[in-house]
Amino acid sequence: MSAVLQPIKSAAAATWALSVRGVAKRYASAGGSVEAIQDISFDVAGSEFVSVLGPSGCGKTSMLRIVGALQSASAGEVEIGGVPLGRSEQDTGRAVQDLAFAFQEPRLFPWFTIEDNIALPLRVRGVPRDERLARARELCALVGLSGFEQSWPRQLSGGMRQRASLARALVIKPRILLLDEPFGALDAMTRDQMNLELQRICAATGATVLLITHSIAEAVMLSDRVVVLSPRPSRVQAIHTIDLPRPRAIDMQAGAEFQRHVRAIRQDIAGYPA
Ligand SMILES: Nc1ncnc2c1ncn2[C@@H]1O[C@H](COP(=O)(O)OP(=O)(O)OP(=O)(O)O)[C@@H](O)[C@H]1O
Ligand SMILES: [Mg+2]
Fold first, then answer.
1. In whole angstroms, what is the distance from residue 208 CA to residue 236 CA?
2. Ligand 1 neighbour 27 (Cβ under 6 A)
3. Whole-structure pTM value
């Protein structure tokens, strides 16, 4: 199966929001070294939603951390808005200001209220308290947590904590959102709800999203394109364009077009070398 690197916006859109070019990652270990990523390349356009699917241990988290400048690649390059990461400290610092992360677990601070947790990235940036709390309350409304601003993380359900974590990622109005299986721990119904909310938030904010997921249905539901990675050491196995109309509803998942995309992706995964 060939990996097709299609430009999805006009060819004149020279600068991608995010560009991953020939990225490789090798970890040194006691018994030698582990090649996690062999060669990953893909682009993400502004306001595009791209999901990455691949088997456990194929290097998805490693790739996302490299994209977010949390660790370096062994080879290749990442560009954020046309700026290559890691060449100049100043440019890298500026480029990552546009990025926000949300992880598989909510990572809220238990000693801060929900609104203080959400406002934390603004506090780090020196935004005055009144302003940052006003913004945190807006975000609570956006993710359906109005009324829980003063609650403590332990008083919220898992799904609500995950929404608070998403709100904290969104509070800086990131141009690029990096999501590492943020809904993996949720039950199916809460996950459907979160998918709808994420879709609504992306439409409202125009954020560019790179989502790692293990769910083919979630990837098809949310994405403009889906990147399928091979087992470790990973390469791009295929890139699927999901041309379903938006906004997408949960009951679309039973439709023939949706199922056609799911089957095509499943076939790529089944085609992994043994
Ligand atoms: N800091 C590290 N030091 C050494 N090896 C590492 C390190 N981080 C990851 N690895 C190895 O790199 C490979 C890829 O790990 P990574 O966490 O990126 O995979 P993943 O695709 O996110 O997996 P999962 O789907 O289970 O989350 C694994 O073999 C892992 O053991
Ligand atoms: Mg991972």
1. 20
2. yes
3. 0.90
